[in-house]
Amino acid sequence: MGGATVLAVAGGLLCIFACLAISGDPELVRKTAWSIGESKFGGGKIYLGLSKLVIYDNGDKVTDVSWKNVDCDALPQLGDDCEDCKDSARGIVQTAIIAAVTHVPTICTYVQRCSRYGDRNCQKTLGIVTGTLGFVSTLSALLSFNANCIDVGSDFFDTKPGRGYVAISLGIVLTFLGVFFHVFLKTPPATYAGVAKGADFDDSGFRKL
Length: 209
Known about the structure:
Layout: H1 2-19, H2 26-32, E1 35-39, E2 44-48, E3 52-57, E4 60-66, H3 82-91, H4 93-101, H5 103-114, H6 121-150, E5 157-161, H7 163-184
Antiparallel strand pairs: 1-2, 1-5, 2-3, 3-4
């Protein structure tokens, strides 16, 4: 399970990076934006974070606005999906935080299974169930964000995924790969045979008969 642990740690770090887009700092939002809109008519760019959007023109910040203060009627250049994107960006904050925080118990499960005496069926089942549910729920939220904030049509901007969106997408995929480790890696028979801690194990962690 060492490989799965490494994947989970990497996935957790990527999810933490994605959460930085919640920041109110314009420069940090620019670096960790989940969606980027590039002007079709010049050097203007819009960086969509999870708490605000930041507008740059030829590398210079023009303005930044919190999502709660965004008036889509006053910003027609954001397109017809502005309200939906606004709701998705604000709504996915909790999902992003949960995705990052839940990596802690996920990693603990992998570490537990690395131990001969901790590799138990309950840990295996827990890892499979929580890993699958976490992946599906986060993926659903990401697909909604993509539909409303990335894969949109605009007469003013061409949009693409930002670093934050790419990071959390890769992060949950890496962590989900660990589910396959749980599925295919068997627990030692001793762990479900009620064997005491002092039992005699072979080099593979299975009890000697």
